[in-house]
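Fold it.
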Amino acid sequence: MRINKCLSNKMKYIVFIMPFFVFVFVFSKTYAYNSGNCFSIDDDTKRAIRIGNKISFVTKHHANIYRNEHTEAKDGHLDFNEKIWISGIGEKRVEIEIQTGKQKWINKADLLCSDKPLKTKGKEGLEKKFFVCSESIRTEKKFSVKAYPDPISDACNNLCKELRSFTSYFIFDENEKRYLLSLTYRLKNGKLLGWVDKKDGILWETSLGLRPSERLEYTPIFAYESIEDAKKKKNGFPILGGKRWFKWDQRIPIIDRRDSFYMVVIPQPTISCNKLGKNRAYDQLFKGVIPVDENIEVEVWCSASALDKYLRVLYGIINVNEFSTGNVLRKDLIHSIAETIERVLGEPFYENDMIIGEYLLRFGLPVRNHSPLFQYSLSDLKNKNKVSDCVVEALFLWITNIFNILEMVKENKYTTFETIFQKSCTDASHIPYIVPYSIKGGTFPDGMGYSNSSFKTTFYWIPEKYLP
């Protein structure tokens, strides 16, 4: 990303100009490292191995190979990023077929067994991303960091890559010192880039970002260096909104929310206009504060496959008798939630006391904060004292409308709707009432939309208010 920051007698404006790189996403607290190597094998990988259809990549330069699982006698080596086929799994090693067609064995730690990024632990369950922006970049004006072909060694062996600063990458493996990165979401569409020191960037583990509203074509929002400055509206950096944001695959990362403020990080190689009219570029990482405001859109990053699952879940939930009311609708809704989640996500949802949103997050589906529906458990929905009949009816109407809205988003129709406060059900004040016939799907100008594609993978930035 590049930010043009030109000083004039009137105002300084920050305008985002996006390159082809994929980077966005939001900070969260870090967890103990986990593994994408062959010590961790999921069911999909086991099935692929059984049918002889599991391709993998070597994660270490000069990785030793052996004639069998137990011998210590080396029988050659493989290079970093070399593609091989897995034919069997042993206790400490993996049986592989190399390009010569021969069967060999390799240590589990030296081979990747997942073709998708690592996911966060805990309830988030989202793909882990790493944003390259080390302290040395900010202090020494460097524009890249090294990605090594080894999880530990600093030796390059002519295989190191320079990774662009202020760019985000997917994490496929990690140890105490480094992350193994790729620019692509699925390795079959790309290759591993190398191992990067953890100190050379920041871990982002959620999927939220913000942008100024598309209504603000020429009126900016402001980012400040501190909450104190934000309260005084002092030393603000203006950021323009408008539909220009729908051209880009990026949003402003949110670190945290504190009361009425978003804590954000803005990567900003800036260009300042000096008296001579010449430009000079500087690399900076602006950590700041943006006040919560109705002119700010908080959005959720979502893969196309996750959005498709989401729509299937919602369709199953609303596929009940639309004329049902009261206790009949309640029973239908509870049954359809449990049955649809099991059918779409492939695992039975027996946990009556688990918040539904937390369960969906395990499968990488985006869930908005304070979700009108998914803030409840099945037990909550069964309890009339906690969720009254009119709330159940309001939820059903809300989800039906949200399903239609998300279908328009998937088709990249510019989607708008009007909401008002619930009038007929005072218990449903947390559920926005969408005005009948107010949902509109327009056409984006060329090159704009909710979705972006990179390396044969499509992603969406979905306004959080469009989620159920």
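Residues 389-410 form the longest helix (22 residues).
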